[in-house]
Amino acid sequence: MDLKLGDKAPKFRLATDGAGEVSLATLKGQPFVLYFYPKDDTSGCTKEAVGFSDNQKKFDALGVAVIGVSKDSAASHDKFKAKYKLKIVLASDPETETALSYGVWVKKSMYGRSYMGMERATFLVDAKGVIREIWRKVKVPGHVEAVLAAAKALK
Protein backbone atom coordinates (compact mmCIF):
# COMPACT_ATOMS: atom_id res chain seq x y z
CA MET A 1 0.00 0.00 0.00
CA ASP A 2 1.30 3.45 -0.87
CA LEU A 3 0.12 5.80 1.87
CA LYS A 4 0.25 9.55 1.31
CA LEU A 5 -0.13 12.63 3.49
CA GLY A 6 -3.82 13.24 4.16
CA ASP A 7 -4.75 9.54 3.98
CA LYS A 8 -6.61 7.94 6.87
CA ALA A 9 -4.30 5.79 8.97
CA PRO A 10 -4.94 2.08 8.35
CA LYS A 11 -6.55 0.20 11.22
CA PHE A 12 -4.36 -1.97 13.40
CA ARG A 13 -4.57 -3.97 16.62
CA LEU A 14 -1.32 -5.17 18.15
CA ALA A 15 -0.08 -6.83 21.31
CA THR A 16 2.42 -4.69 23.23
CA ASP A 17 5.09 -5.13 25.84
CA GLY A 18 3.73 -5.62 29.35
CA ALA A 19 0.88 -7.82 28.04
CA GLY A 20 -0.94 -4.77 26.69
CA GLU A 21 -2.67 -3.97 23.44
CA VAL A 22 -2.81 -0.92 21.19
CA SER A 23 -5.08 -0.21 18.24
CA LEU A 24 -6.21 2.65 16.06
CA ALA A 25 -9.48 2.55 18.04
CA THR A 26 -7.74 2.92 21.44
CA LEU A 27 -5.80 5.92 20.09
CA LYS A 28 -8.91 7.62 18.69
CA GLY A 29 -8.93 11.36 19.40
CA GLN A 30 -5.20 11.40 20.22
CA PRO A 31 -2.31 12.16 17.87
CA PHE A 32 0.35 9.46 17.72
CA VAL A 33 3.65 8.42 16.21
CA LEU A 34 3.82 4.91 14.77
CA TYR A 35 7.40 4.05 13.97
CA PHE A 36 8.43 0.78 12.34
CA TYR A 37 11.86 -0.71 12.95
CA PRO A 38 13.56 -3.97 11.88
CA LYS A 39 14.63 -5.70 15.11
CA ASP A 40 14.89 -5.36 18.89
CA ASP A 41 18.37 -4.92 20.39
CA THR A 42 20.24 -4.09 17.18
CA SER A 43 22.37 -0.95 17.03
CA GLY A 44 20.23 1.37 14.87
CA CYS A 45 16.96 0.16 16.37
CA THR A 46 18.31 0.60 19.90
CA LYS A 47 19.50 4.15 19.15
CA GLU A 48 16.09 5.02 17.69
CA ALA A 49 14.16 3.52 20.63
CA VAL A 50 16.43 5.24 23.18
CA GLY A 51 16.00 8.54 21.29
CA PHE A 52 12.21 8.30 21.40
CA SER A 53 12.38 7.22 25.06
CA ASP A 54 14.66 10.11 26.01
CA ASN A 55 12.10 12.49 24.49
CA GLN A 56 9.01 10.74 25.87
CA LYS A 57 8.16 13.58 28.27
CA LYS A 58 8.22 16.09 25.38
CA PHE A 59 5.85 13.89 23.35
CA ASP A 60 3.66 13.42 26.45
CA ALA A 61 3.50 17.21 26.93
CA LEU A 62 2.14 17.45 23.38
CA GLY A 63 -0.35 14.64 24.04
CA VAL A 64 1.32 12.51 21.36
CA ALA A 65 1.65 8.76 21.98
CA VAL A 66 4.75 7.01 20.60
CA ILE A 67 4.51 3.37 19.51
CA GLY A 68 7.40 1.37 18.08
CA VAL A 69 6.44 -1.61 15.89
CA SER A 70 8.53 -4.58 14.82
CA LYS A 71 8.00 -8.24 13.99
CA ASP A 72 9.53 -9.23 17.34
CA SER A 73 7.34 -10.87 19.98
CA ALA A 74 5.91 -8.98 22.94
CA ALA A 75 8.25 -11.06 25.16
CA SER A 76 11.23 -9.84 23.12
CA HIS A 77 9.93 -6.28 23.53
CA ASP A 78 9.72 -6.77 27.31
CA LYS A 79 13.42 -7.78 27.42
CA PHE A 80 14.42 -4.93 25.08
CA LYS A 81 12.56 -2.37 27.21
CA ALA A 82 14.04 -3.67 30.45
CA LYS A 83 17.61 -3.79 29.09
CA TYR A 84 17.56 -0.16 27.90
CA LYS A 85 14.97 1.24 30.37
CA LEU A 86 12.76 2.29 27.46
CA LYS A 87 9.65 4.36 28.26
CA ILE A 88 7.81 4.03 24.93
CA VAL A 89 5.24 1.40 23.97
CA LEU A 90 6.57 -1.40 21.76
CA ALA A 91 4.04 -3.32 19.67
CA SER A 92 4.44 -6.73 18.08
CA ASP A 93 3.45 -7.39 14.44
CA PRO A 94 4.55 -11.03 13.98
CA GLU A 95 2.36 -11.64 10.93
CA THR A 96 3.42 -8.26 9.42
CA GLU A 97 -0.24 -7.37 8.76
CA THR A 98 0.18 -3.83 10.08
CA ALA A 99 3.53 -3.43 8.31
CA LEU A 100 1.88 -4.49 5.05
CA SER A 101 -1.05 -2.08 5.50
CA TYR A 102 1.41 0.77 6.09
CA GLY A 103 3.59 -0.33 3.15
CA VAL A 104 6.72 -0.94 5.20
CA TRP A 105 7.14 -4.72 4.75
CA VAL A 106 9.42 -4.49 1.74
CA LYS A 107 11.97 -6.36 -0.35
CA LYS A 108 15.46 -5.66 0.93
CA SER A 109 18.87 -6.87 -0.14
CA MET A 110 22.14 -7.41 1.67
CA TYR A 111 25.32 -8.96 0.32
CA GLY A 112 23.51 -9.81 -2.93
CA ARG A 113 20.72 -11.69 -1.15
CA SER A 114 17.10 -10.51 -1.38
CA TYR A 115 14.66 -10.94 1.48
CA MET A 116 11.52 -9.38 2.93
CA GLY A 117 12.02 -7.10 5.91
CA MET A 118 10.78 -4.11 7.85
CA GLU A 119 11.60 -0.71 6.39
CA ARG A 120 12.56 1.83 9.03
CA ALA A 121 9.67 4.28 8.64
CA THR A 122 7.65 6.65 10.82
CA PHE A 123 4.09 7.95 10.54
CA LEU A 124 2.71 10.95 12.43
CA VAL A 125 -1.06 10.68 12.74
CA ASP A 126 -3.30 13.50 14.00
CA ALA A 127 -6.18 13.22 16.47
CA LYS A 128 -8.63 12.59 13.60
CA GLY A 129 -6.65 9.57 12.38
CA VAL A 130 -5.17 11.39 9.36
CA ILE A 131 -1.53 10.87 8.36
CA ARG A 132 0.23 14.24 8.64
CA GLU A 133 3.87 13.23 8.10
CA ILE A 134 5.66 10.18 6.69
CA TRP A 135 9.37 9.45 6.95
CA ARG A 136 10.63 6.50 4.88
CA LYS A 137 14.05 4.85 4.84
CA VAL A 138 14.78 6.67 8.07
CA LYS A 139 18.32 7.47 9.09
CA VAL A 140 18.42 7.47 12.90
CA PRO A 141 20.59 10.56 13.64
CA GLY A 142 18.30 13.58 13.98
CA HIS A 143 15.14 11.60 13.26
CA VAL A 144 13.51 11.86 16.70
CA GLU A 145 14.07 15.62 16.68
CA ALA A 146 12.40 15.90 13.24
CA VAL A 147 9.40 13.87 14.46
CA LEU A 148 9.13 15.99 17.61
CA ALA A 149 9.20 19.21 15.56
CA ALA A 150 6.44 17.88 13.30
CA ALA A 151 4.41 16.80 16.35
CA LYS A 152 4.70 20.33 17.76
CA ALA A 153 3.42 21.71 14.44
CA LEU A 154 0.20 19.66 14.83
CA LYS A 155 -1.04 22.06 17.50
Number of domains: 1
Q: Percent of residues in beta strands?
A: 25-35%
pLDDT < 50 runs, ≥5 residues: none
Order of helices and strands: EEEHHEHEHEEEEH
Distance between the ends: 28 Å
Explain what you see.
With 155 residues, the chain is of the alpha+beta class. It has a single domain (13-153), classed as Glutaredoxin. Helix content is 29%, strand content 29%. The protein is built from five helices and nine strands. It has helices at 43-54, 56-61, 74-84, 97-101, 143-153; strands at residues 13-16, 20-23, 32-36, 65-70, 89-92, 105-110, 113-118, 121-125, 131-135. The protein has a seven-stranded mixed beta sheet with strand order 2-1-5-4-3-8-9. A hairpin with a 2-residue loop joins β6 and β7. The longest helix has 12 residues, at 43-54. The two termini are 28 Å apart. The mean pLDDT is 95.
List keywords for this structure.
globular; 9 strands; seven-stranded mixed sheet; 5 helices; alpha+beta; two-stranded antiparallel sheet; Glutaredoxin; single chain
Structure in a nutshell:
The chain has one domain (13-153): Glutaredoxin (3-Layer(aba) Sandwich).
Topology diagram in text:
Elements: E1 13-16, E2 20-23, E3 32-36, H1 43-54, H2 56-61, E4 65-70, H3 74-84, E5 89-92, H4 97-101, E6 105-110, E7 113-118, E8 121-125, E9 131-135, H5 143-153
Parallel strand pairs: 3-4, 4-5
Antiparallel strand pairs: 1-2, 1-5, 3-8, 6-7, 8-9
